[in-house]
Design brief:
Blueprint: E1 16-18, E2 21-24, H1 26-38, H2 41-48, H3 52-65, E3 71-72, E4 84-85, H4 87-114, H5 121-127, E5 135-146, E6 150-157, E7 162-168, H6 169-175, E8 182-187, E9 193-195, E10 207-218, E11 222-228, E12 234-240, H7 241-247, E13 254-259, E14 265-267
Antiparallel strand pairs: 1-2, 3-4, 5-6, 5-8, 6-7, 8-14, 9-13, 10-11, 10-13, 11-12
Helix pairs in contact: 1-2, 1-4, 2-3
Length: about 270
């Protein structure tokens, strides 16, 4: 039987970049458009056929990577309170829509010039990845010190808070870490510890952030906590449901999140 091969076509997304780093693309633009239209993260998620949690996480990521929030959220139960776009968020949508049509025309023209793309298929599959870490923060390297085996890096987040990371020296050299470099910091939610009161408590964790609880996702065993820190970044943690009840956590309450510097993964845009 003759094998039928599917042709490889050219497709892509238009992304806005900030400081030469990818910032927001079509999927997040669609979410922003629905939030602007419906005034609710929950309603926007239902309209797009995604879960509320996925939409909430996307909004947190957008605001974390932006110098100024694109979405302003209000606490108010599972469905969230009233939500609206800032002027910057609306301007991002307007400019994206203006450029999208020209971008699609460019792809059609480029595909005609490139011809057969089948030789690129396997390579492109290998270099396209997603990450499972719940926390993706964006900052600028304020300092990097190299030791024999490890390197310690200090990032300045957009709110001015400092985040510390310890990675192997070889990893730091591979990333070419240096002062002033824009870097992504990834932390798994299970590595983050939450406390409601640190008075009299001494901790060895290299990172400690105080903030406001914005969302609680309660399960029978665990509870997911979203903590907004100064500057608008959100740090997510997974703790036991019993601990959340004991601390009486609720949207709007103050709390602290801390995690080890060695639990931070650093990344830079290629």
């Amino acid at each position: 039987m003759e094998e039928i091969l599917e042709s490889v076509g050219l497709a892509g997304q238009l992304w806005f970049h900030k400081a030469d780093k990818p910032f927001v693309g079509r999927d997040k633009i669609c979410l922003l458009e629905k939030i602007d239209e419906l005034g609710s993260i929950n309603k926007a998620a239902k309209a797009l056929g995604i879960s509320y949690r996925t939409a909430w996480d996307a909004v947190n990521l957008i605001n974390n990577l932006s110098d100024f929030p694109l979405v302003e959220k209000a606490s108010g139960g599972k469905g969230g309170g009233g939500t609206h776009l800032t002027d910057l968020g609306k301007e991002i949508i307007r400019k994206y829509q203006l450029l999208q049509q020209e971008h699609q025309s460019f792809l059609v023209s480029l595909e005609e010039k490139l011809g057969d793309l089948s030789g690129l298929e396997n390579f492109l599959d290998r270099v396209t990845v997603k990450v499972s870490a719940r926390n993706v923060l964006y900052g600028t390297l304020a300092n990097v010190s190299y030791g024999t085996v490890h390197a310690k890096a200090t990032l300045t987040l957009k709110g001015g808070s400092l985040l510390h990371a310890i990675v192997t020296r070889s990893a730091a050299e591979s990333l070419e870490l240096h002062e002033g470099l824009s870097v992504y910091a990834l932390i798994q939610a299970g590595s983050v510890v939450v406390a409601d009161d640190l008075d009299g408590l001494r901790i060895s964790a290299g990172n400690l952030f105080e903030g406001t609880v914005r969302r609680l996702l309660n399960g029978p065993v665990n509870t997911e906590v979203d903590l907004e820190i100064p500057g608008g970044d959100t740090i997510s943690a997974v703790i036991t449901a019993e601990s959340a009840q004991h601390m009486k956590l609720q949207p709007g309450s103050r709390a602290c999140a801390f995690f080890k510097a060695s639990h931070v993964i650093l990344g830079v845009a290629c």
